Every structure is written in structure tokens, then in C-alpha cells.
């Protein structure tokens, strides 16, 4: 699973799933570019800590994934990449007739259009090097739907379609493009929601996790960021050379229902 010497860009990677993916790629020997829209001392310190921990090069490059020019500039500033993981995303929940237009525009821009821009910027360099891996972090909501999440579901379905298109356009080259579709993942953001949900429903932590958060996840267990990172690393390995244009669900059986 070694990707030693390869350069990997992971968008939205200063926390949560993106950070988990970045850690697994760094562990496998990749030179990693972390990213988010902020440009704080702690962002650059995080890169330094990962570099020291895994003995590889880790940089932080700020870029606003809601802006196409920033997305493309991220790839340029990184000096291109061998591995591109499109992970940046936001969420908003509301009925469609009450969904704020600005929220719709932001979700489509960050969750979908950003991947178009980064892929378009990265592919020429991958073709020149004769090797490339694109992994798009979609969602179980890229394969199914839930009410009140119109923008998120539309964007994630779009990511699955974009993945298939890129795979077909690169099918005769040593470049693959796949989508990972996680269910609920235990991230710091999700962890922080549990105490308030316990109070709201007057439930124990175990009942909140099992009956509220993981209601649609048959395994009744969260996926982990390490599992998603490990799957990304697998998709970059020789074993996955003929895996392209498909989705891999890490959802505890959600989409089997």
C-alpha cells in the first residue's frame, strides 16, 4: 500500500474525514498537502506535526473551495499531484421550499463544483507523469436520499456522476477515478452533537447513537476516519489498478436496504 514519493492533495483536511485520509496517506509515505479555507498558525502547525510523526513532507495550503480559481490555484501551488482526494464539504438541513438560496449555492460550489475544478487542474500533470489517482469522497447520500437535504444529496449524486465521467475519459491511461460513499462517520463534529442530542431526547449516549444518529446504518456502528483513509490508500495501490469509475460504500449496510 506504499505511495512513497507520491504527492497527495486532500481538500478539507484539517479535521475529520479529510485529516484521517491525510494521515493514512502520510503513513503510507506520500507527501501530503493539507487544505482548508482558513490560514491559521494551527493549520501550519498541524502539517508540521504530521510531517514529524510520519517522517514525510506535509504542507498546508489555504484555498476556499467555494471559489473555482482557488481550487485550481491549490493544485498549482502544490506543484501538481499524483493523488487527489476531494473531500471538502458542508451541510445544511431544511425543507426545499424553505432552503436558503445562498446555502444551496455554497453546498453545490464546495461539495460538487470544487471537484470539477481540482480534477481539471490536476489531470494534465497526471497524464504527463503517466500515473494518477482521483478519489472523491461522496456519501451514502450519493446513492440514496433523505428529506431536507436537497443540496447535499444533489451534490453527492453529482459527485458520483462526475467520478464515472472522469473514469471514462481516463480509462486508457494509468489514471483511475473512484468515489467512496461513507455512511455516518465518527468525527469530532459528530461527537460534539451527541451531548445536545442526549438532552433533546432525554436518552443515554448509547440510545442516541443507536436509535438517532445510526438509525439508517444497519451495523449500528460508526465508520471511522481510519477506515476511509485505508480505503483511499487501497485505491492508490497496485491491487486497485483496474478499479475505476465505481463507488465503494463504507456505510455499515445502509445502501443494502
UniProtKB/TrEMBL annotation:
It comes from the Bacteria. One of its GO terms (molecular function) is 3-hydroxybutyrate dehydrogenase activity. The keyword Phosphoprotein does not apply. InterPro entries: 3-OHbutyrate_DH, NAD(P)-bd_dom_sf, Sc_DH/Rdtase_CS, SDR, SDR_fam. Its EC number is 1.1.1.30. It is an enzyme of class 1 (oxidoreductase). Keywords: Oxidoreductase. SUPFAM superfamilies: NAD(P)-binding Rossmann-fold domains (SSF51735). GO terms for biological process: monocarboxylic acid metabolic process. Gene3D superfamilies: NAD(P)-binding Rossmann-like Domain. Belongs to the short-chain dehydrogenases/reductases (SDR) family. This is D-beta-hydroxybutyrate dehydrogenase. It comes from Pseudooceanicola marinus.
Amino acid at each position: 500500500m506504499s505511495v512513497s514519493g507520491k504527492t497527495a492533495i486532500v481538500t478539507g483536511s484539517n479535521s475529520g474525514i479529510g485529516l484521517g485520509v491525510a494521515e493514512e496517506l502520510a503513513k503510507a509515505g506520500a507527501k501530503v498537502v493539507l487544505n482548508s479555507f482558513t490560514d491559521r498558525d494551527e493549520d501550519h502547525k498541524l502539517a508540521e506535526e504530521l510531517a514529524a510523526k510520519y517522517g514525510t513532507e506535509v504542507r498546508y495550503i489555504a484555498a476556499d473551495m467555494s471559489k473555482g480559481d482557488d481550487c485550481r490555484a491549490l493544485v498549482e501551488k502544490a506543484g501538481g499531484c499524483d493523488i487527489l482526494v476531494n473531500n471538502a464539504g458542508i451541510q445544511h438541513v431544511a425543507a426545499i421550499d424553505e432552503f436558503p438560496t445562498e446555502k444551496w449555492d455554497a453546498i453545490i460550489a464546495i461539495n460538487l463544483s470544487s471537484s470539477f475544478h481540482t480534477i481539471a487542474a490536476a489531470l494534465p500533470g497526471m497524464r504527463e507523469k503517466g500515473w494518477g489517482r482521483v478519489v472523491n469522497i461522496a456519501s451514502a447520500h450519493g446513492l440514496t436520499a433523505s428529506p431536507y437535504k436537497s443540496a447535499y444529496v444533489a451534490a453527492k449524486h453529482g459527485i458520483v456522476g462526475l467520478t464515472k465521467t472522469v473514469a471514462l475519459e481516463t480509462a486508457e491511461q494509468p489514471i483511475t477515478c473512484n468515489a467512496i460513499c461513507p455512511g455516518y462517520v465518527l468525527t469530532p463534529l459528530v461527537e460534539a452533537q451527541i451531548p445536545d442530542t442526549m438532552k433533546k431526547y432525554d436518552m443515554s449516549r448509547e440510545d442516541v447513537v443507536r436509535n438517532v444518529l445510526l438509525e439508517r446504518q444497519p451495523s449500528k456502528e460508526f465508520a471511522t476516519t481510519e477506515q476511509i483513509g485505508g480505503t483511499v490508500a487501497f485505491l492508490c495501490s497496485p491491487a486497485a489498478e483496474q478499479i475505476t469509475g465505481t463507488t465503494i460504500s463504507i456505510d455499515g449496510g445502509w445502501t443494502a436496504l
